Amino acid sequence: KSTIDAKSPQEEKVTNVEGKAYPTDHWTNAPPNILSHVQRRIYLQENHPLHLTRKLIESQFPAPTYGNYTESFPVVSTEQNFDSLGFPPDHPGRSRTDTYYLNEKTVLRTHTSAHQADYFRRMNNDANKEEGYTVVADVYRRDAIDRSHYPVFHQMEGARLWERPEGMTATESAARIWKDFEKLPSHGVEVEDPNPVTHPVRNPLQSKYHSQEEVEALVAHLKRTLENVFVKIFSEASKAANTPQDPLKLRWVEAYFPFTSPSLELEVFWQGDWLEVLGCGVIKQDLLNNSGVPGRIGWAFGLGLERIAMLLFNIPDIRLFWSTDARFISQFSDGKIVQFQPFSKYPECYKDVAFWLSSASTSGTGASAAGGAVPFHDNDMMEIVRNCAKDIVEDVKLVDEFVHPKTGRKSLCYRINYRSLEHTLTNKEVNDVHEKVRTSLKESMGVELR
Ligand code: FA5
Ligand code: MG
C-alpha cells in the first residue's frame, strides 16, 4: 500500500511475464517499463560488450571443475531470493522500496544468489562431477539513478565446494584446499588486505561447522581466484588501450551478507577512485546443509558485470549497454576487447523540482515493507523519474532538504539531469517530460509542488 503506484500496475489482475501470469496484490510494484527489459537478454547477444565480458570471466572458471550457466527467466519466489539465504524478515532488501514485486510471494530477482540453493541441490548428484559453477543473469533493483546504477543490471555468481567426508579431520580438509590453492597462478599485483580472515563479532567463524584453518584456506583460495579474474581483465583492457594504463590496484574490505561468514568485498582502483566490484564469502553451512550437500564446504561470490565491462571497454554510462544505436553496437562487432569511442556527447539539461512532503510522510531511508505510514523514499522519486523519462536521465540528486521552522513541514529539492545518449534533446521534449514528473509526484506521492 505504498503511495507510489496507487493507480498503476495493480489495477490489472495479473502481470504477464513472457506468457506466465502472476496474480497481482497489494505488493505488486513492477512496472511495464522495467518488465520490458526481460526479453532483451543482452548478455546472450553475440559481440555485445556484456557477452564478451561474461565470456572473458568464464574463461577463468573452466571445465571440468566449473560449469558455466545462465538463468534467463528472472522471476523467482521470495523463498529463493530471501528465505533460502537466511534474510531476516525485517531485512531492508525485502522492502517494496528496494525490490520489484510481482506479488507478495514473487519478485524479479535482486541478485543471482537467488539460485544458490538450486545449484547446490543440483550438485548433489553423482552424475554431476562439477565442483563449482558460474551463473549469469539479469537482476532488478529499485535503486539510485546515475552513470553506474541502472534498475536492471547483470550479475555473475560463482561458487566452489569441497567434499569433507565424515571422519576427515579439519587439518586434512584444510590441506586439500591449500593444495588447490597452490595450483592457482600467483600474480604480482598490489593488493590491500588489512583485515584478519575472521572477526569475532562482525564476521565470525562458523565454529559449529568449520575450523579456523579450513576457513583460512577457503578464504585464501577465494581471494586468489578472484584477484586473478581482475589481473586477466586488466591485462586485456591494457592491451586494448593505446595509452599506458595505471597499474592495477585491488583492495579487500569487510562486508556483511546473510548467507556468508566471513564476508568480503573487492574494490578496484579506477579513474581515481575505489570501485566496488563484487561481494563474496564462506557459504553459511546451514544453507549447504539445507540444500542437500551437508558433506561439503565452500565459498561463493557475486559480481556486477556492467561495472567490470565499464572498466574493460571504457564505457562511461551504464545506460549504453541497452543502446540499440549502431554507433554503439557496431564498435564491438569483431568480438574483440576494444576501447569504446564516444560518438559525441549530447548536451545536458538539468531541471530542479522542489516540493513539500505531505504531513503524513517523512523522508527517511528505513522504509517499511507494507502497511503503516509510508515514508517518502529516495527510490520512490527515482521510480517516478524512470517511469516518466525512461532513459533520458543521466542522474538524479537530492540537492536541498529543508524543514520549515514554524510548521515543521519538510521540503525536498531534487535536481534531474536530462541527457540523451543518442540525440540532442529539444526544450519541448525536456519540458514535457519534466512536467510529467511534477504531475506524477503530485498525484502519486501527494506532495505539494513549490
Ligand atoms: C550481492 O548481490 C550478493 N548477492 C553478492 C554475493 C554473492 C555475496 C555470493 C556473497 C556470496 P551486492 O548487492 O553488493 O551483493 O551486489 C554485488 C555487485 O553487484 C556489486 O559489488 C556491484 O558490482 C553490482 N551492483 C550492485 N548494485 C548495482 C546496480 N544498481 N547497478 C550496477 N551494478 C550493481
Ligand atoms: Mg555491495
Automatic annotation (TrEMBL):
PROSITE patterns per UniProt: AA_TRNA_LIGASE_II (PS50862), FDX_ACB (PS51447)
EC number per UniProt: 6.1.1.20
Reaction(s) this enzyme catalyzes, per UniProt: tRNA(Phe) + L-phenylalanine + ATP = L-phenylalanyl-tRNA(Phe) + AMP + diphosphate + H(+)
GO BP term (any one): phenylalanyl-tRNA aminoacylation
One MF annotation (Gene Ontology) recorded for this entry: ATP binding
Domain of life: Eukaryota
Predominant location category: mitochondrion
Residue span(s) of domain FDX-ACB: 344-450
Residue ranges of coiled coil: none
SMART domains recorded: FDX-ACB
Keyword Transit peptide appears in the UniProt entry: yes
Subcellular location: Mitochondrion matrix
All copies of domain Aminoacyl-transfer RNA synthetases class-II family profile, residue ranges: 54-342
GO cellular component term of the entry, any: mitochondrial matrix
Gene3D superfamilies documented for this protein: Bira Bifunctional Protein, Domain 2 (3.30.930.10), Ferrodoxin-fold anticodon-binding domain (3.30.70.380)
Keywords: Aminoacyl-tRNA synthetase, ATP-binding, Ligase, Mitochondrion, Nucleotide-binding, Protein biosynthesis, Transit peptide
SUPFAM superfamilies with a match to the protein in the record: Anticodon-binding domain of PheRS, Class II aaRS and biotin synthetases
One Pfam family cited in the UniProt record for this chain: FDX-ACB
Stated role: Is responsible for the charging of tRNA(Phe) with phenylalanine in mitochondrial translation.
The family this protein is said to belong to: Belongs to the class-II aminoacyl-tRNA synthetase family.
NCBIfam families in alphabetical order: pheS_mito
PANTHER family found in the cross-reference section: PHENYLALANINE--TRNA LIGASE, MITOCHONDRIAL, PHENYLALANYL-TRNA SYNTHETASE
Record-given protein name: Phenylalanine--tRNA ligase, mitochondrial
